[in-house]
Amino acid sequence: MAKKRIFSGMQPSGNFHMGNYQVxxxxxxxxxxxxxxxxxxxxxxxxxxxxxxxxxxxRIEHMALDWLSAGxxxxxxxxxxxSHVKEHAELHLLLSMMTPLSWLERVPTxxxxxQQLGEMGKEINTYGFLGYPELMAAxxxxxxxxxxxxxxxxxxxxxxxxxxxxxxxxxxxxxxxxPQAILSPLLPGIDGRKMSKSYGNEIPYAAEPDELQxxxxxxxxxxxxxxxxxxxxxxICTVYTFHKIFSPEHSEIAGHCRNAGIGCxxxxxxxxxxxxxxxxxxxxxxxxxxxxxxxxxxILAYGAERARKIAAATMEEVRSIMHxx
Length: 325
Hints:
By secondary structure, the chain is mainly alpha-helical. It is 53% helix and 8% strand.
């Protein structure tokens, strides 16, 4: 029996950060059970960062380094750069011809990000930004993915994909499966908000121990806990959210917090050490791979070659159904 196929991607709009730590961990766990296709979606990065594209090649290389050093196997997974497979753009174009404008305008994150990034001085009232979820749909449909690992804020985008799949089937012929969501939780930024370089609240995945400790020291804790002798509430503490991932004894830590048996400074020190220890092997592999840039290019080229075979077959079928052959 054929494995179900997974598609997911991340955009190289900045350095990979710890907000996506669990997402990447889930990808690694899935590679034994699913047929996985993972893309560095550089065209998506242009939707909000089109003014200066000079650092995109560097960020693509860094993202590939992070993925591979974390344990993604290029033999078990198809790992590639989105723009290296031109069929993504072709399917996006064809789908955009049949998708009602109102479907794109009602995506909840559209107006939120338009306002948020606009306040930061970015001009993103563009066709490309509005069509971001359409391109995401093309990415998923091109590989006939059965499921997509997504964070909760991406659920509306995936539902749009499912609507587009149904519309394509009604207009032409059933070709694509309706992809299911596999929820992948995100870790918050040091200020408790969603981790993002735009907010300046990120912890770089490749941070050296000194930088990691410095970022952890800045994490917000229970605002009601002013003194060490005050009992705390770990459930509203950003530090404890990370402890639940990195510290096996997190339940014990929660008890100490509630009983004022540990102060926030010591709690942060413990967390930083746990994170440094957990990531030590990953960072070691990353340094070894970084010394072999040609190897990274070979892996991405190999992945693109494999992705193109699937994409070409899908587009041949789509063109035939749409009488475009």
